[in-house]
Amino acid sequence: MALFSERGFRGVAMPELAAHAGIAAATIYRHFDSKEALVNELYRRCKRELVDRLSPATPPGVPLRERFHRLWWALIAFAREQPLAFAFLELHYHGDYLDDASRAVEMEALVPIAAVLEAGRAEGLVKALPPAPLIVTVWGAFVGMTKAARLGYFELSDELCAQVEGTCWDAIRA
Fold it and tell me: Which 8-state DSSP code applies to residue 57?
């Protein structure tokens, strides 16, 4: 994950991956047919971990603003606790080497976010836009904030995260 996150998919050769893992190049091919298979497996594992964090954070029956709050902080927790996985996911989520199974897990990760936003639209609490632009508004702000913190522009403090959460909520609320 570190090599893929640092240099991207095309910037790493299988022998380098094997050497980094401390195994022979032939050994890696016993487990993965190709570099594409390896990166897809890693992508699915990381994305599933994110899905596992988001789904319980947004239970139905909880007031919408609280669901949004829980969703936001589940994202923050994942990015803080798994910074390498988050960086890896963000670098690779548009990769043309991702297979259908990886794309399916990507869509699965959007379900809890879309559910909160759809509920908000149904209740008239969120702007009457299709889910995709609303997701882009929230996800884009979150990713931008996280990347900027990773690059050292500012600290990802609770106070800053709360302020950006409020800004995102203001951007999507009706």
Answer: G
